């Protein structure tokens, strides 16, 4: 199969019929064998009934329904598992992503050699104060941390080579960082395409301002796991050793200063009467705790089933000797 279109949705009963018709129209002139996979993420409206009714008119349509709302990452992960196409395109169900972008996204993967192409909503139709400004700040931070020069990391309209979605695990709320997950997995040819952004036609956004806070925390988590996930002692041990050394050196200085002053008959303060002494004790304790955290992390990592799970891209077998 050439193409799989994976769409996660939640309470989009009004949008689904128009979206399916729009996709069918956009791909009608393309000689592509494709499938549409809808993931109903526990909708509380009549979305599933609408999907059941629409499935009678579209042979390319399949759907999965969750028993409750698990989140977009869970929906995409399930859709990725079901996808059979050589190229997988994701998009939102709210009609803000244009299906007319799909052929060009497909072409960029197949003919231009990209592993992943992310959409860039250069001209957004959202409220500038509520979404545009926080989104720009969020994407600027994401670019600095991930090293990916993408203007719109969280754009729902993306295209992937099949190998990408089969080698990344999307969980929690990590759907925002699939390009970064792909980079960590070794897929470096990541591109960007300016796409049209439509104003919301039905309903309201399912995401609030808390997504920016959660997104930042998830970004830090991914950065840490990519750098120190299999060697936590390198992080905790380094900072623990430095903190312990600072505390030890400070305490040693205070004790030495007291002994020298006492030996020379000079006036001195008791070590325990100085605030700096208690600061050094805190540094010693924190340093030991950080070091122990790294040690425990190493024990956990050593017993992890993923410790030696490496993604092999290609394998060259030894040739038969010439006769």
Strand-helix topology:
Blueprint: E1 3-9, H1 16-27, E2 34-40, H2 47-54, E3 61-65, H3 72-82, E4 87-92, H4 102-110, E5 116-120, H5 128-146, E6 158-161, H6 162-165, H7 178-184, E7 190-194, H8 210-228, H9 232-263, H10 275-302
Parallel strand pairs: 1-2, 1-4, 2-3, 5-7
Antiparallel strand pairs: 4-6, 5-6
Helix pairs in contact: 5-8, 9-10
Our estimate of the beta-strand percent is 5-15%
Number of E-state strands? 7
CATH topology type of the largest domain: Spore Coat Polysaccharide Biosynthesis Protein SpsA, Chain A
Widest sheet: strand order? 3-2-1-4-6-5-7
Helix/strand order: EHEHEHEHEHEHHEHHH
Give the helix/strand class. alpha/beta
Q: Briefly, what CATH class of the largest domain?
A: Alpha Beta
What is the rounded Rg?
Answer: 27 Å
Number of domains: 2
Q: What's the CATH H-level superfamily name of the largest domain?
A: Spore Coat Polysaccharide Biosynthesis Protein SpsA, Chain A
Reported for the largest beta sheet, the result is: 7 strands, mixed
The helix content, as a percent range, equals: 40-55%
By DSSP (H or I, 4+ residues per run), the number of helices equals: 10
Distance between the termini: 42 Å
Low-confidence stretches: none
- What is the CATH architecture descriptor of the largest domain? Alpha-Beta Complex
What report would you give on this structure?
This protein folds into 2 domains: 226 residues, Spore Coat Polysaccharide Biosynthesis Protein SpsA, Chain A; 71 residues. The chain is 46% helix and 12% strand. It has a 7-stranded mixed β-sheet, sandwiched between helices. The radius of gyration is 27 Å and the shape is elongated.
């Amino acid at each position: 199969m050439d193409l799989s279109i994976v769409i996660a949705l939640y309470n989009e009963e009004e949008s689904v019929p128009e979206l399916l018709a729009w996709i069918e129209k956009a791909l009608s002139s393309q000689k592509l064998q494709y499938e549409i996979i809808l993931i109903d993420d526990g909708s509380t409206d009549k979305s599933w009934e609408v999907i059941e009714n629409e499935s009678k008119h579209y042979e390319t349509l399949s759907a999965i329904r969750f028993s409750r709302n698990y989140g977009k990452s869970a929906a995409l992960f399930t859709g990725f598992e079901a996808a059979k196409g050589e190229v997988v395109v994701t998009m939102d169900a709210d009609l803000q992503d244009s299906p007319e972008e799909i052929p060009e996204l497909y072409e960029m993967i197949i003919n231009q050699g990209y592993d992943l192409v992310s959409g860039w909503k250069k001209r957004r139709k959202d409220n500038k104060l509520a979404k545009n400004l926080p989104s720009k700040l969020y994407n600027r931070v994401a670019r600095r941390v991930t090293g990916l020069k993408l203007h719109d990391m969280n754009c729902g309209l993306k295209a992937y080579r099949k190998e990408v979605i089969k080698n990344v695990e999307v969980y929690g709320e990590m759907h925002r960082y699939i390009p970064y997950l792909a980079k960590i997995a070794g897929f470096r040819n990541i591109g960007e395409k300016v796409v049209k952004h439509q104003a919301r036609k039905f309903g309201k956004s399912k995401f609030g301002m808390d997504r920016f806070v959660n997104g930042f925390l998830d970004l830090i988590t991914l950065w840490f796991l990519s750098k120190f996930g299999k060697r936590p002692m390198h992080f905790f041990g380094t900072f623990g050793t430095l903190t312990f050394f600072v505390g030890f050196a400070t305490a040693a200085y205070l004790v030495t200063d007291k002994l020298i002053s006492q030996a020379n008959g000079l006036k001195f303060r008791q070590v325990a009467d100085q605030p700096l002494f208690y600061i050094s004790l805190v540094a010693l304790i924190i340093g030991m705790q950080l070091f122990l955290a790294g040690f425990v992390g190493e024990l956990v990592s050593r017993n992890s089933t993923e410790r030696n799970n490496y993604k092999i891209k290609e394998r060259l077998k030894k040739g038969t000797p010439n006769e």
